[in-house]
Design brief:
By secondary structure, this protein is mainly alpha-helical. The chain has 22 helices and two strands. Helix 10 packs across helix 11 and helix 19 packs antiparallel against helix 21. The longest helix has 29 residues. The protein is globular.
Length: 492
């Protein structure tokens, strides 16, 4: 383990995070037209946050580079890569919390860290009971963090790491984009295309929302939330009070960003839509949206629940893609509809997308593997292939599916027990749904933490547990859990 390489890399990440804070403050001054509201911005707090972040990053980078002067090997190998990923998300969350802590009165540092983790992991949960009374630069910073986290913090700053091998190793531990999913041999070119697609979708979404019934500030924030599937908005009522046209526009972009982004690169390269047609995960993802919407409509008609078709489809897409926008209160829905919503929380979007959850591909492989094992129960000598997209799936891939799902169940159970111990007044449904919501990076939960409630009243230890679960789920567990292995930290 080369600690100096890790310190230098983390220093670069923190410095660039400070630059992002400065860009947020500048952008806020440009797009905020309500000067009376803008006057509430705490410039002193923002200055402190930017200086602390930039200077800390500069010190870490300088120290790491100074210590590396006498070393011949300065490469980022597998152990360094997974450590940079795990620690990078934690360290960036600690510094990204500073604007919330220093600029919003009454916010504790633990609450600020929870809010920052929620942003970077695109979870959408918030400790703020009323977002409409927050300074607009704070709202903008919250949206920027989730937009950066949607593509992955290290995906955003990949160009600071030189070398194809290093970049692919780093990306292999981030759940948004996997190096193996990129068909291009030139990783820098592939990443540039990914960011171009991501930025293009965001800009088009902004223009559409702005042309409808949102002002520019609302359009920017909601577009960044939709394309990152983060779900944090600028209104207390979320999307409820906006027009049906706005809801359909957001449905489109949430659904698009729940699809694997490397597929867009493949379509771009081949100039053909046949790639996405042959992609099984995307096909089943769209089928799930259609079937769940139909079930909700039928259940609402039987249960005499007043809701329109667009609201049902919106809630299906926002939950499946783990965006977390809200239209109405799904806790008032019939029981079957609530159970469908909870199932969609677990499934999540496609692998390689900005969505969270277990991912549609894992659920597919798990179900097909179970089917094969059932057949082997009465035909033990039969040879059964496990395929996806017409290709055989390697045994290690199936094994990783079972490992991730087993770890997810373990942390769901232990996390629920921990929250119930720390919050004895919360209901069992509230504790379990809070853990599920944070671990799958969704945002709203059930009971005391439903779509109309905030996480602000929870104790600091509880917020710490939930923030940890957000990062665990976002990095799909392994990149964080390995940090607790003593073997990882041994010298070469």
């Amino acid at each position: 383990m080369n600690l100096n390489v890790i310190i230098r890399s983390l220093g670069i990440l923190v410095m660039l995070l400070g630059v992002g804070m400065g860009a947020c403050l500048l952008l806020g001054e440009i797009v905020i037209v309500d000067r009376e509201h803008a006057a509430r911005v705490d410039y002193n707090g923002w200055t402190q946050a930017i200086l602390i972040t930039v200077l800390s990053g500069l010190f870490a980078y300088g120290f790491g580079k100074w210590k590396l002067k006498g070393q011949s090997d300065k490469r980022i190998l597998r152990r360094e890569a997974i450590t940079v990923v795990g620690l990078g998300w934690m360290v960036c969350s600690l510094f990204a919390a500073l604007p919330h802590y220093l600029c919003v009165s009454g916010t504790t540092y633990t609450q600020a860290v929870f809010e920052a983790c929620s942003g970077f992991t695109t979870t959408g949960s918030s400790i703020f009971p009323s977002v409409e009374h927050l300074p607009k630069t704070t709202l903008l910073w919250r949206s920027i963090t989730q937009w950066m986290g949607g593509m992955g913090i290290l995906g955003a700053f990949l160009l600071i790491f030189s070398g194809e091998a290093r970049g692919k190793t780093l990306l292999s531990f981030e759940s948004s984009i996997h190096g193996a999913d990129l068909s291009s041999t030139d990783l820098r070119t592939a990443m540039r295309k990914l960011w171009q697609v991501y930025s293009f979708l965001t800009v088009v979404c902004i223009l559409g929302l702005w042309a409808m019934d949102m002002n520019l500030f609302q359009a920017i924030n909601h577009a960044m939330a939709a394309t990152s599937t983060g779900g944090f908005g600028t209104e207390n009522s979320s999307i409820t009070d906006f027009s049906n046209a706005t809801k359909w526009w957001l449905i489109l972009f949430m659904a698009l960003c729940g699809i694997s982004f490397p597929l867009y690169i493949a379509m771009w390269t081949k100039r053909s839509f046949t790639v996405i047609k042959r992609h099984e995960e995307t096909r089943w993802y769209l089928i799930i949206i259609m079937v769940a919407s139909i079930i909700l409509m039928i259940d609402h008609q039987v249960g005499d629940c007043k809701s329109c078709f667009v609201d049902n489809v919106f809630n299906v897409v926002t939950i499946l893609t783990t965006t977390g926008f809200v239209v109405g209160d799904y806790e008032t829905w019939p029981l079957m509809s609530q159970q469908v919503i909870m199932l969609l929380m677990v499934i999540g979007g496609c692998s390689g997308s900005t969505a969270g959850g277990l991912k549609v591909s894992r659920i597919m492989l798990w179900l097909r593997s179970m089917k094969n094992e059932i057949i082997r129960g009465f035909r033990p000598n039969v040879v059964l292939k496990l395929e996806m997209n017409g290709k055989a799936v390697q045994p290690e891939v199936v094994r990783s599916v079972y490992v991730v799902m087993a770890i997810a169940v373990f942390f769901f159970v232990t996390g629920s027990m921990a929250v119930s111990l720390l919050e004895p007044k919360m209901s069992a449904v509230g504790c379990a749904s809070a853990v599920l919501s944070c671990m799958c990076n969704i945002g709203p939960a059930f009971a005391e933490l439903g779509p109309t409630d905030s996480f602000g009243y929870l104790s600091s230890p509880t917020l710490g547990v939930l923030a940890g679960l957000m990062i665990l789920g976002r990095l799909e567990f392994i990149a964080v859990l390995v940090l607790f292995s003593r073997r990882l930290w041994r010298k070469y």
